[in-house]
Design a protein that fits this description.
- Helix 3 (about 50-60) packs parallel to helix 4 (about 70-80), helix 11 (about 240-250) packs across helix 13 and helix 15 packs across helix 19.
- The longest helix is centred in the C-terminal third of the chain and has 26 residues, at about 435-460.
- The protein folds into two domains: about 25-180, no CATH class; about 205-485, no CATH class.
- The N and C termini lie far apart (about 85 Å).
- It is of the alpha+beta class.
- The radius of gyration is 25 Å and the shape is globular.
- It is built from 19 helices and twelve strands.
């Protein structure tokens, strides 16, 4: 009896199908927080509870809304959102505080995370500080009268602010997107006044020209374009040989890799920043593995296009169009790409896709991205003119956002840390606010210092200098004109 030939048990390796992200470089980003692409009415109405849709239909003028089914509510809302008269009538019925709630989200590009919406609502007096927020997408948990007193919750009930993103803590609002039908008729609120001191320009400062950053990006992109296509991993990230090629093409100085410094420090049983050497005001501090930052800007701005399987390329036409955009628009795309990238981290460098089983090797993405949003929001509060000290900026961002975990993660192994940061031994302090603040400064505070004084200075987004305050040297900084324009400051 003839046996059939044995088939090989080896299965052909499946090539990862790379999801092509939205190309911010092509469509443009009006604000780093702006939803791109804009959600349609169908997107806004999907996966909503029947009670939520009925309440929203009633607030948008449906007299018999209590009898509506889900399709009835969806049809009425779609008609209402396409009618200028209905939109005007809705805004006229809104209270001043409700219009302020809409203006908060409009000011920040039409989208805001739940923790930042909660902070802004408390700062502007729309809700009492510490008021617990429950499930605002449902009408089952509390009575309409109780919830109607909250202007932000009322706008979420009306789907004027549409819940978006993952669920948040019960004491925070959900992340929201401003309904597109209201974008042109809602006025943005003025920024929250900066609560701290503003300094005159220092005698010496360091500002890196945007054109110099663009030239370095050009060298890296020219290398990728000359290669044609290049290999990427399952996340669409260039492989290590490609990153080494970018580093060689750009010729940028780099600090030692984080893994080398970490191993050396662990042998000496050292914790905290590896270096506290004062930053120079002549040259920017070298980034840890700057090729990772450049790759992240290219990948997350949508300039890297998937070709087939696990290969990608940078189309020269797309790159040339992006280079021709105004500087402020390119800066906005860079900020959006920085918000989303997690494979290169400030003060750390390139990090692996996953942690070891019992040992973290990076700031986790679900902690890092919301913390980045909080930092960008805090920068939008800075006054257009004048300089602020790093210490005072850290004090106010911690005071304003700590109750809602504004910048929150567990990591303290950074390549550099500022020597003048008032870090105390948190274990020597009694349990309470002071100990919590000291703990926060030694981790999140050092990360913010790396973002502002190293990464953003290197990208030309921040200008930094030094001043003397009561006989002590302190770092000061301000946003460049292009950054202020991108943030709407």
């Amino acid at each position: 009896m003839r046996s059939r030939p044995r088939r090989s048990r080896r299965r052909r390796r499946r090539s990862a199908s790379l999801a092509t992200p939205c190309s911010y470089a092509e469509v443009g980003v009006p604000h780093p927080f702006a939803p791109v692409p804009r959600p349609s009415a169908v997107d806004l109405l999907e996966h909503r509870r029947a009670a939520h849709l009925r309440n929203a239909a009633g607030l948008w003028g449906a007299a018999d809304a209590p009898k509506f089914t889900i399709p009835d509510s969806q049809a009425h809302l779609q008609r209402a959102w396409s009618s200028k008269n209905t939109i005007s009538a809705f805004l006229e019925r809104c209270s001043p505080h409700e219009r302020t709630a809409l203006g908060i989200v409009k000011r920040h590009g039409g989208a805001l995370t739940g923790r930042l919406l909660t902070v802004e609502a408390e700062l502007r007096g729309l809700v009492e500080k510490g008021q617990r927020m429950r499930d605002w997408s449902s009408a089952d948990d509390h009575s309409w009268r109780e919830r109607a007193r909250d202007p932000v919750g009322a706008m979420i009930d009306a789907l004027a602010l549409v819940p978006a993103g993952p669920p948040t803590l019960d004491k925070q609002y959900p992340g929201v997107v401003l309904n597109p039908c209201l974008e042109r008729v809602v006025d943005p609120v003025i920024r929250v006044p900066w609560p701290g001191e503003v300094f005159d320009p220092p005698r010496r400062s360091l500002r890196r020209p945007i054109d110099q950053v663009q030239a370095e990006l050009d060298r890296g992109v020219d290398y990728l374009i000359e290669r044609g296509s290049f290999p990427v991993n399952k996340h669409g990230w260039p492989t290590k040989p490609v990153l080494k090629g970018i580093a060689k093409a750009t010729g940028l100085p780099s600090t030692e890799p984080w893994s080398v410094l970490e191993e050396r420090a662990s042998q000496r049983r050292e914790w905290g920043p590896f270096s506290t050497v004062p930053l120079s005001l002549v040259d920017p501090a070298p980034l840890p593995q700057p090729e990772g930052l450049l790759a992240g800007l290219l990948v997350h701005s949508g300039l890297v296009k998937s070709t087939r399987g696990t290969r990608a390329q940078v189309p020269s036409e797309t790159w040339n169009r992006f280079r021709g955009q105004p500087t402020a628009e390119r800066v906005c795309v860079w900020l959006r790409a920085w918000l989303e990238q997690v494979h290169w981290q400030d003060g750390i460098g390139l990090v692996p896709d996953e942690d070891k089983k019992y040992e973290p090797e990076r700031i986790t993405p679900w902690e890092l991205v919301p913390s980045k949003h909080t930092l960008i929001w805090a920068l939008s509060l800075l006054p257009p003119a004048g300089w602020v000290t790093l210490n005072e900026f850290l004090h106010h961002i911690h005071r304003l956002t700590d109750d809602h975990y504004g910048v929150s993660f567990y990591w303290d192994r950074f390549i550099w840390g500022p020597e003048d940061l008032p870090m105390e031994d948190d274990t020597a302090l009694p349990v309470g606010r002071d100990r919590s603040r000291a703990f926060w400064l030694s981790k999140q505070g050092v990360w913010i210092a790396n973002v502002l004084l190293v990464t953003f200075t290197w990208l030309g987004l921040v200008e930094r200098g030094e001043v003397e305050v009561e006989g002590e040297r302190q770092c000061v900084f301000r946003l460049t004109e292009e950054t202020r324009s991108a943030l709407g400051s």
